[in-house]
Amino acid sequence: MASAKKKSDDEVEPTADPEDRLQLALARGEGDPDADLDDEDDDDDALEDVPATAEGKASALRLIDLLVEKKALALHVEKPSTALIEAVARALEWPGPVNRRANKLSDAIVDSDDVDELFVDDDTLGEILKRW
Q: Residue 28's pLDDT is what?
């Protein structure tokens, strides 16, 4: 009499149907597209608690001044507040990819009470960040 070998939960017969493979992977918790995003969000939150360096604040002030001078940024105030400078510095110092840094930078700028209008998009800010 031949003995039957029971497959463990990890041993599953391969299936040719990609949809079945996807369902199987998701059931195991593999390839969860939101799992990686949750980890990235946690990293973002942790970095937001880190204050900007003095060099980062100086760089942020230069960038804000340049954007105002080139009429890419309109402020309600004569000089940017320390809160705006800090937020821009954190975006500049954030170690992520340029496109995400550009998004963080635009969010930091437009969320400030100092700002009337930002006249450049994230792609343009990304190009500026590549050279900054």
A: 64
In a domain, 62, yes or no: yes
Does the residue 101 lie in any domain? yes
Block means of pLDDT (10 residues each) for the chain, length 132 residues?
A: 47 54 60 45 56 96 97 96 97 95 97 97 95 92
Q: How many domains does the chain have?
A: 1
Owning domain of residue 65: 48-131
Domain-embedded: residue 97: yes
Each as own residue / partner, the long-range contacts of residues 59-67 (CB below 8 Å, 24 or more positions apart, any chain) are 59/89, 59/92, 59/132, 60/85, 60/86, 60/88, 60/89, 60/92, 61/85, 63/88, 63/92, 63/128, 63/132, 64/88, 67/118, 67/120
